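G., the chain you wanted modeled:
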Amino acid sequence: MTKQSERTPLYERVKQYIMERVDSKIWQPGMKIDSEAELVAATGASRMTVNRALRELTAEGRLTRKQGLGTFVAEKKSRAALLEIKSIAKEIRDNGGDYSCSIHLLQEEKVRPELASLLGLSPYEPVFHSVIVHKDGGTPIQLGSRFINPTIAPDYLNQDFTRTTPSDYLLQLAPVSAVEHEVEALIPEAWIRDLLQTNHHEPCLALYRKTWVGEVIATYSTFYYPGSRYTLGSRFTPSGATTINIS
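Predicted structure as tokens:
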């Protein structure tokens, strides 16, 4: 052991031990790593020290811990475009993933007063509502809750969204003239956590999107992304400036 390693806190050395095995592909994404007891035996650290190392690597997004199952190497995060509208299915497939979805709601509703103002409708007018969970390799990575102005997409409820995504369908139907985006980090409601298969400690990124077709507000949507599985980012070139990245 070098003098440098002797000066490194023991929990950091345990983290290095774990990440050396991750980086060398001994433990690959999605694979279960050694138990706490096995890490104690391998590193000579106390169980408390090993637990701290695991907690910190989990908070950093390098590991995921599943109650009753153990600790796993985190899967590579998918990435969504922040400043453009793009099919989630295409994003996943472009990243080498295996796209699927499950439809949890597809119905006509009477729009609530607080939502009516966001859609430019009168309270209790008809509105279409869909809730779809999009998955990569069977793992939920986005829940999309969309409210659609029926005048823009009168046949929305008749579509098979296991074959096409709402974004693909709506973009083919009518060109979007304007988009408004807002992003917030939050702990989502219990029903959203259940559908995304996250626990009550894991934050999500919530992307709020409003779109216009001409002068008409077409959709108001909220997209929830588990923070450990997804990132939001964009690349754009401001007028007269160099290209920059936001992530």
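The first helix runs from residue 3 to 7.

Shout if anything looks off.
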